[in-house]
Amino acid sequence: MDGRLLCRLKCGLLFGRGGRTSIERWLLLFSFFLFCLLPSSQAAYYAWTSRAHLAYEKVMQLRFGEARAQISLLRQEESDNLIYVLIEDYIDFFTLYIGEEEEVFRRLEQNKKLRLSLLRREGDPSSPWHAYLQADILLHWALARLKFEQYATSFLEVNKAFKLLSQNVERFPDFLPNKKDLGILHAIAGTIPDEYSGMVSWLTSLEGSIAQGRSELESVLEHMDEYYVFRDETYVLYAYLLLHLADETDEAWRVIEQSGLQAEQSPLSCFVMANMAMRLGKNDLALAFLERCPEGRIYYPVPYLHFMRGICLQRRLLPEATRYFERFLSGFRGRHFVKEAWQKLAWQALLEQDFKKYRTCIAHCRTAGVAVTDGDKAALREANAGLMPQSDLLRIRLLFDGGYYERAEKLLEQFGPEDFGRHAYRLEFVYRSARLAQALGKREKAFAKYQLVLEMGADDPWYYACKAALELGRLCEHQGQLAKARSYYQRCLELRPAAYRTGLHQAAKAGLKRLEK
């Protein structure tokens, strides 16, 4: 029907003769013109248009100023497209997760409630994006809260997200973003560290397996195309699942190479590539990535990249590492990794035989930052124990961590256990011997050394015996000796070292989960 005809028809119905009083006719007339003057509104929708894609890309590059400008244009040009809500939330998430500033957290926290309320009020429930956006926002805030030790609220948000995603996948089984988020949640469900597992069991219905999560992420990788908005995210999540939970280090690196990430594209890409390289003993490659990292005022600052660069240089036993640890400490306003950075500065002093500076730096570990991460806990324990690392063993450790196995072995061969007076140093020497033997493919020697470490150090507070049990489990698992592997993984969980316990136990739980297949 012609619009003008429809309008005349409505006027006739409203204002035609029918016995209405003048006041009634006036009110109807006022209401009608008010209705005509209001802008017409369409139902809200979710669409990854070219403008939305560009805004998201700017966020992933940590170019928040440009991202906000694109979001503003998106809201002007596509006023009913609610996809901007998720993109805005990504900015808040990275701001909090990278910066770790409590004042900023308190200021931004209200945004979560406002965004969820907006989506529930105006969003289209028939779209698969409707529940997904709500779930992803909840997961962002759950992760951010972990930085501020708000564990109970974090796990409740994870639970809400898990339920939303589980319901959404039933309604839309082929919707790939569901599988991206559920893949990680299912994979980590059985590997929660002991100190949090009780709370997780009480507050959430989280369940799943590494195999289930892996299958879901692989399904996304198989069916996504080059235009899939979460392409890079999926590659990164899958690579870290392979590295930390599946114990497939070579495959994890292959996935990162296949992803097409470029370190010079953004600080986030640089972090992922350098972090993965560092964990796999590719120190020179990690340093090359960090040297190519883009910098400037257009990027949200990531002080942790200076910390990583310091570690890479320290693993090459270079004095320049000091400068980067100091840059991290001067530029970072958060709380995590601060104790560890002071410990690394203390190690630099020790490598230079400056014992006074070592004591000054290690003392800061008692007061600076918080002891939540494994590295910070280890730094605090070193400071409180008053036991200075043995400098030659420290060099061997650093060279090993950097993947310089031949250099480390050459230095190790200059000593024997009898050259170290303290039990702690003798135990560490045997442990370093086992680690090097394993890295150099000398399986039988590594196995025997790890067993010796387990015998010597099971009752000690250091992490060596716990790590030895974990590696014995991995060696047996790779050889198909599953019963022995299970026994060693369980032994790892029985030991409770003062440092690195969370990561070691999570890896042992992942090993037991793999053996359930």
Helices and strands in order, then pairings?
Blueprint: H1 3-15, H2 22-37, H3 50-60, H4 64-77, H5 83-99, H6 102-108, H7 110-122, H8 128-146, H9 151-171, H10 176-188, H11 194-203, H12 210-223, H13 231-245, H14 249-259, H15 267-279, H16 283-291, H17 304-315, H18 321-331, H19 338-351, H20 355-364, H21 374-385, H22 391-401, H23 405-412, H24 423-439, H25 443-457, H26 464-478, H27 482-494, H28 501-515
Key traits:
517 residues; mainly alpha; disordered N terminus
Structure description:
This protein is an all-alpha fold and 517 residues long. Helix content is 71%, strand content 0%. The chain contains 28 helices and no strands. The chain has helices spanning 3-15, 22-37, 50-60, 64-77, 83-99, 102-108, 110-122, 128-146, 151-171, 176-188, 194-203, 210-223, 231-245, 249-259, 267-279, 283-291, 304-315, 321-331, 338-351, 355-364, 374-385, 391-401, 405-412, 423-439, 443-457, 464-478, 482-494, 501-515. α22 (391-401) runs antiparallel to α23 (405-412) and α25 (443-457) runs antiparallel to α26 (464-478). The longest helix is centred in the first third of the chain and has 21 residues, at 151-171. The radius of gyration is 28 Å and the shape is globular. The N and C termini lie far apart (64 Å). Residues 1-41 have low confidence and may be disordered.
Structure summary:
By secondary structure, the chain is mainly α. The protein contains 28 helices and no strands.
Encode the helix/strand succession as letters: HHHHHHHHHHHHHHHHHHHHHHHHHHHH
Described by the principal axes of the CA atoms, the overall outline is globular
* Portion in beta strands: under 5%
Characterize the largest beta sheet: strand count, sense, and whether it forms a barrel: none
